[in-house]
Design goal:
By secondary structure, the chain is mostly helical.
Length: 177
Amino acid sequence: ILGGIPANDLIKDFGFKLADLEAYFPVSPYAVEKTGVEVHYLGYYVKWHPQEVYYYAVENSEFMPNDHRTEGSYSKYSSIDDKLDWLHYHTTSIKFGIGRATYDAAQEIRNGDITRDEGIALVKRFDGEFPKQYVEDCCQYMGITLHQYHDAIEKFRSPHLWKRESGHWKLKKPIWS
């Protein structure tokens, strides 16, 4: 499947040849094993501390953070290469009442980068923010309209966590209350 369309449909409907599409398919595990390619993550070698790894990347590579924060959080350097990442955090917010800012703040509180009170203030300000930047791209990729997206996602909103108040969804027991 490429861009939400099965490869056979691309070949049949648009006249592509399989060879035209091969560059977009994942590499087979056998081919990777045969060539001896190894995958190494930075976390294999240094303690995974997002803020410190960010500083390391800036100092030792050409890494550039966003010029704006990631919607739903306060970070400018996490998941900036992925148009679908926000979808995971938005659906988690709807279903479980915890969004991207909660995950980011919890990590930074554990690492001693911010206090619990600072984390709560960040969560209150940014958690649950609807991420608009890539929503159209994602809906197009999934072959649905924005209205269909909202209809589908609302089916998973946990009623024991959320209440409707003045036309807006509010957590029944937010961390700041």
